[in-house]
Amino acid sequence: MPRHARVLLQGVPLHIIQRGHNRQPCFHDEADFRAYLNWLRKCADLMNASIHAYVLMTNHVHLLASFEYPAVVSDFMKAIGQQHTQYLNKRLGRTGTVWEGRFKSCPVPTEKYLVVCQKYIELNPVRARMVGSVDAYPWSSYRDNAGGRHDTLVRPHYLYLALGQTKDLRQHRYQRLFDHIESSLFDDIRHATIANAVPGQPMKKRGRPARN
Description:
alpha+beta, 4-stranded antiparallel β-sheet
C-alpha cells in the first residue's frame, strides 16, 4: 500500500507519534528518558522547533511542535531517533533499530484543537492506566503547562499564553481544563494522526485504527 503524503502547513503545529520498532520498549530506566529529552531539546534548538507538549511512554512518544520550516520535520525526527538509538544500543550492548522508520503526524488547526491536543498528549499515561492522575507522570510536559516544574524544553504556543495574563493564572486555568475531556475531539486527533490527515476533515474509512 502506498504511503499517504505527509500534510505540512506553514504556521500550523504538528502532532507527532513515533513508536518503537515492533512496539518494543524504547525507554528502560530514568536515564533513557533523560537522554531522549536531551536530544529533543538539542534538535529543537538546532532546527528552530518549538515543543508545546510531549509525553514519553515506554514504547512510543507524542510531541506537539511548531516548526519555523515545516519541511525539516523528517530530519528532526530522524536526528533524534538516530542519537537515541546509538545511545541505547551502546548502553545495552546490542545493535539494530529502536524506532519505527516512519513516524505519524497531523497538523493541528490551532483555534479548535491546539489545547485539546496538549491534553490528549499529556493524558496518555492516565488512559494507559500507568498513573492515576495526570500530574503523577514525570515524563510529560504537564507539570510545566499546569505548574509544579519549570521545563526549559517547553515553549508555549500563543493560544496557551492567551489563557491568562500571568503565569500562575495560565497554569491554574490549564489545570481546570482537565476537568472536562472532549472525547470526540480526541477521536478526531487520533484518527487524523494515524491517517496523516487534518483533524475534523472527512476521511475515507480505512478500517479501525489502533488506540494511541
